[in-house]
Design a protein that fits this description.
Layout lengths: L9 E4 L2 E4 L11 E5 L3 H13 L3 E5 L12 E4 L6 H14 L4 E6 L19 E4 L4 H10 L6
Parallel strand pairs: 3-4, 3-5, 5-6, 6-7
Antiparallel strand pairs: 1-2
């Protein structure tokens, strides 16, 4: 009779988690910052990415998008002004060009021309809403620019 292995249970939140009963576990190699105004969006994506083995930090402030070292920043810009979001993206490209920026929006056409100047770092990944956790995870891990 075959038994399925049970996945390790995770405890803690966001970037501070470890398999139950284990100490001194290394932090995840991929760290992600999530920027959204909705607590449900922040909590849901953070939990999904954490279960997938990524570290995830949440903020409701666009100004905090570049604050901590990370591999990717996921923006949910629909509750912010477009100009403020573009300003946050420009600052991210200027201060942390190695970070992959993702925008998940109900209005993808507003962001399709942002960041087309060469030499800014990673190309902006624009995904229309709804975007499921696995889609966002795949975009982060592949680092591919998916437009439209």
């Amino acid at each position: 009779m075959l038994r399925r292995a049970r996945p390790a249970r995770l405890h803690g939140s966001g970037t501070n988690f470890a398999p139950a009963g284990k100490e001194n576990v290394r932090a995840p190699a991929v760290q992600v910052t999530i920027v959204a105004s909705s607590a449900e969006t922040l909590d849901g994506l953070q939990a999904y990415l954490s279960r997938a083995g990524l570290g995830a930090r949440c903020t409701r402030e666009l100004a905090d998008a570049h604050a901590d070292p990370c591999s990717a920043v996921v923006f949910f810009p629909d509750d912010f002004s477009c100009e403020e979001v573009i300003g946050a993206l420009e600052r991210l490209w200027r201060e942390r060009p190695s970070v992959l920026p993702l925008v998940i929006t109900g209005e993808p056409e507003r962001y399709l021309r942002v960041g087309l100047t060469e030499g800014k770092g990673h190309a902006l990944v624009v995904m229309p809403r709804p975007a499921w956790g696995w889609m966002i995870l795949d975009a982060i891990l592949s680092g591919q620019s998916v437009r439209g």
